[in-house]
Design brief:
Number of strands: 13
Structural class: alpha/beta
Number of helices: 13
Largest sheet: 7 strands, mixed
Number of domains: 2
Radius of gyration: 21 Å
């Protein structure tokens, strides 16, 4: 261990958690959680078991159909517990982006030409493109909320851009590129001051911090279990009073209750919902976010305290106001060369230009590409140290 480095909390047995992942039984360091996390074996087993004994659809009275019903109802309850809402406010879909296109189209049925949507400069394009496409088709106006110099959302700019024509304020709760966290409660308060919806992209936030949609007063919130050790799914929360006011895009004979199911199109992937249920059980078994948050914070602090001045970190310089996702570059060494150097040392990180955050990357000041490293609870202090050493050795290649 490096001298004078932050130590990880003893309350979390990382080795015991890692033993539940077949993918983590080698020396390869997966430091790419922002692009998708590794999955514990029990999640895959639950998916396989559902395919074996619950290959059916809702509505019948025989055993496999009843098993599907149990999987779905359990998933709605688990999602409600994860998000802090009621089960009938949960909507499942194939991924966050697809759900966002569907729900933005649904909300936009009642929008008029000239109505406005505000989006954040921190946002992944999955939270922006649906509104741009809707604006193209319905003659709406999409305006971008600017950032402060430290990459936090400029709330004064948001407040100045709100108007009686604002229908939605859509924003990322945490940046998938640089980890900056937005004050979701304050943004929702400002949105509601003009009667607009507070529409939250929590995909990146959900892997690292607990969510309570009531506490932040969100109207719509979306996330993706594959970012927190689950299968590829999209999950949305919609405030009941909002969902009740929308006319869904729906196959006519399909059930219209519970409320959230009105907005689900086609047969759901019940096997993946079984995997999601196993994911929630796994997270609870390791202590949930009471354990995850301080452990991941210590990993982030370890990185920030040990990198040299030859490594540029974009965004916030400490763990205050961020999750453990970092965008870095090694001075004088192209990002693509650095990640190849790290891959040869069994360290997995990516290099990319925009990281799908098209309103952010150009203002960060790097040319071509930057390296993203993201820690999650199954990462170790030793892996952080290996990454730091790899950055330093890349300079000598």
């Amino acid at each position: 261990m490096l001298a004078d480095q932050p130590t990880v909390p003893e309350s979390f047995d990382c080795d015991a958690a890692r033993a539940r992942f077949s993918s983590l039984r080698t020396e390869f360091a997966f430091l790419d959680a922002p692009g998708g996390s590794q999955v514990p074996d029990e999640v895959g087993q639950a998916i396989a078991q559902a395919l074996a004994d619950a290959s059916a659809n809702l509505g019948a009275v025989y055993a496999t159909s009843l098993r599907v019903k149990e999987i779905l109802e359990t998933a709605e309850q688990n999602a409600a517990g994860f998000l802090g809402c009621d089960p009938h406010e949960v909507i499942f879909g194939p991924n966050m982006t697809s759900l966002n296109f569907t729900l933005s189209r649904t909300a936009g049925r009642e929008f008029a030409p000239g109505d406005e949507v505000l989006v954040s400069s921190l946002d992944h394009d999955g939270g922006v493109a649906p509104w741009l496409e809707l604006a193209h088709d319905r003659d709406l106006v999409v305006r971008q909320i600017e950032l402060r110099d430290d990459t936090t959302l400029a709330l004064a700019d948001l407040e100045a851009k709100l108007s009686e024509r604002t229908r939605v304020v859509a924003f990322a709760w945490a940046s998938n590129a640089i980890g900056t966290v937005t004050d979701a409660r304050r943004v929702a308060e400002l949105a509601h001051s003009v009667g607009a919806l507070a529409w939250v992209d929590a995909v990146h936030y959900a892997a690292h911090m607990p969510i309570d949609v009531r506490a932040i007063d969100a109207d719509v919130l979306l996330c993706s279990p594959y970012k927190f050790c689950g299968p590829h799914l999209g999950i949305a929360y919609g405030r009941a009073s909002v969902l009740e006011s929308w006319r869904p895009y729906k196959v006519r004979p399909a059930p219209s209750t519970p409320l959230g199911r009105r907005f689900e199109t086609g047969t759901q992937p019940y096997e993946l919902l079984a995997g999601f249920n196993a994911t929630i059980d796994y997270l609870k078994s390791i202590g949930g976010f009471d354990t995850i948050v301080p452990y991941e914070r210590a990993l982030g602090e370890r990185l920030l305290s040990s990198i040299s001045d030859a490594v540029t970190v974009y965004g916030l310089p400490t763990m205050a106001g961020r999750v453990p996702t970092f965008l870095v570059n090694v001075d004088g060494v192209p990002a693509a060369d650095v990640v190849a150097h790290l891959a040869a040392r069994d360290i997995g990180v990516w290099a990319h230009d925009s990281w799908y955050s098209l309103g952010l990357y150009k203002r960060l000041g790097y040319e071509d590409q930057a390296i993203r490293v993201g820690f999650i609870h199954y990462n170790t202090a030793a892996e952080v140290d290996r990454f730091v050493d790899g950055l330093e050795s890349a300079r000598a290649v």
